[in-house]
Design brief:
The protein is of the alpha/beta class. It has helices at residues 14-29, 63-77, 93-105, 122-127, 135-144; strands spanning 2-6, 34-36, 80-84, 108-112, 130-132. The chain has a 5-stranded parallel β-sheet, sandwiched between helices.
Length: 149
């Protein structure tokens, strides 16, 4: 089974975002999942200290390329989307789109959403199949599904 990791990127640096996705990827791969996330193939951004929401010129990170590739991964390449909104300090439009695409495509959506989160909105909660308050609980749920390579 394949899982897509979603979560806020704008305003964060490459090391923080990549580190977060790498840690989750490693844990889920040990359970037999194949893991995709929006930072795959974007090592050219490794010097970014603060991601902006638009305006990159590299072919892989031009606005349309990001939009289309993320939509393709979410709707055609995975069985589950794990959207970690637990550390969000502002709304992540990209993650909201990924949840909407997944919901429309019938992809199982697991969302980490604490009560005091800026994403507490009916569109986010209704796009989620399951909502956990803590990331650890969401990962344990995915581990419990018994996926093995």
């Amino acid at each position: 089974m394949r899982v897509y990791l979603a979560g806020p990127i704008t305003g964060k640096g490459f090391a923080e975002v990549s580190g977060h996705f790498a840690g989750l990827k490693s844990r889920l791969e040990r359970c037999g999942y194949q893991v995709l996330h929006p930072m795959l193939g974007k090592d050219h951004l490794r010097t970014e200290t603060t991601f902006r929401p638009e305006g990159y010129t590299h072919p892989v990170t031009q606005d349309h390329a990001i939009f289309e590739r993320d939509q393709w991964m979410v709707t055609k390449q995975v069985d589950i989307v794990l959207a970690d909104l637990s550390q969000a300090t502002r709304v992540s439009i990209g993650t909201c789109y990924e949840l909407a695409w997944a919901s429309l495509a019938g992809v199982h959506t697991v969302v980490v959403l604490p009560d005091d989160n800026p994403h507490r909105h009916c569109f986010v909660t209704e796009s989620a199949d399951i909502i956990f308050e803590a990331l650890g609980d969401a990962v344990m749920y995915l581990e419990s599904l018994g996926v093995r390579a």
